[in-house]
Amino acid sequence: MKETAMPDFPVVFGICLDAEALWLAINPENAAKPVLLSHGSYAVREGLAPLLALLERHGVKATFFVPGITADRYPEAVLAIHRAGHELGSHGANHRTPVGLTLAEERAELLGGIEALQRVTGERPVTWRSPSWEWSANTLDLLLAEGVTVSTNFHDAVRPYRHLRDGKPVDLVELPVHWHLADAPFFIHGGRMERILRTPREVEILWQEEFAATHAWPGAFFHLTLHVQLIGHPGRLAMLDRLIGFMKAHAGTRFVTSRDLAAEIP
Ligand SMILES: [Zn+2]
C-alpha cells in the first residue's frame, strides 16, 4: 500500500495590539477625542486577557505587532504577551505608513518601533509589519540594514518566499497576508472607517472556506491577521475559538510564529 505523506500546514496568527496608536496615526486631532480613542483602549482594558487565555488553551503561539507608542504606554501588556511565549514583532514607532516619509523619517519610525519593544522585553524583534501594509522605495534597504528578517506585508502569494534584491535572494522572508484573512474589513467601524459590520458567523464561514481550500494547496500556509481591539469582543472571540477547533481538525495543522516559520524558508 502506498504511504501518503503527512500533510504539513503551518498557521500563523499575526495580531496587532495597536491600542490608541491606530486612531492617533489616522488623524493627530483624534488626541482630543477620548471616546474615539477608547475604541483602541479596549484592546488593553478588555480584549487582551481573554485572547491570551484562548490562545493558551489551544496551545497557539502567535506573533503580536505592537507600535512603539503603545509599548511605551502599556509595557505590562507587552510583557504579558512576551511571558506567554508569543513573538513580538515591530509595527513602527507611531503607526505611520512608510509611504511619503523621507528616508530619515522612515528609519526613525522603524527604529523607534524596534527599540521600544527591546526596552520592554530585552529582545530585539526581527519581524516587522508595516502599519499600512505598504512599503516605500527605501523599505527593503532599511529592513536589511536594521536586521529585520521577516516581513508580513505583501499580498502576492499563499506561500512564504524570500525577497530578492537585484535578482539575488536576501536575508528577508515574506509571509504574505490578505485582506479577506484579516478582521479589519469586517469588524471595524468608527473614525474615518465607516464600514458595514459583519456578524462573526459570516466571517467564520469565509475563513473556514479559505482555510479548507488553502490546506489543499501544496506548500501553502494560512495567515490570519487580527487586531486585539476588534477580535477581543465576546462574540468574536467565541468565533475564533470555534475556528481554531476547525483548523485543528485538519491533518497537519500546526501553529507557528512568523519568526519560526520564516526560519524554515530556504
Ligand atoms: Zn496596526
Automatic annotation (TrEMBL):
SUPFAM superfamilies referenced in this protein's UniProt entry, alphabetically: Glycoside hydrolase/deacetylase (SSF88713)
GO biological process, one term: carbohydrate metabolic process
PROSITE patterns reported in the protein's UniProt record: NODB
Stretches that traverse the bilayer: none
Pfam families: Polysacc_deac_1 (PF01522)
Gene3D superfamilies according to UniProt: Glycoside hydrolase/deacetylase (3.20.20.370)
Gene Ontology MF: a single term: hydrolase activity, acting on carbon-nitrogen (but not peptide) bonds
Residue ranges of domain NodB homology in the record: 33-266
PANTHER family found in the cross-reference section: POLYSACCHARIDE DEACETYLASE FAMILY PROTEIN (AFU_ORTHOLOGUE AFUA_6G05030)
Family stated for the protein in its record: Belongs to the polysaccharide deacetylase family.
Record function comment: Is involved in generating a small heat-stable compound (Nod), an acylated oligomer of N-acetylglucosamine, that stimulates mitosis in various plant protoplasts.
Protein name in UniProt: Chitooligosaccharide deacetylase
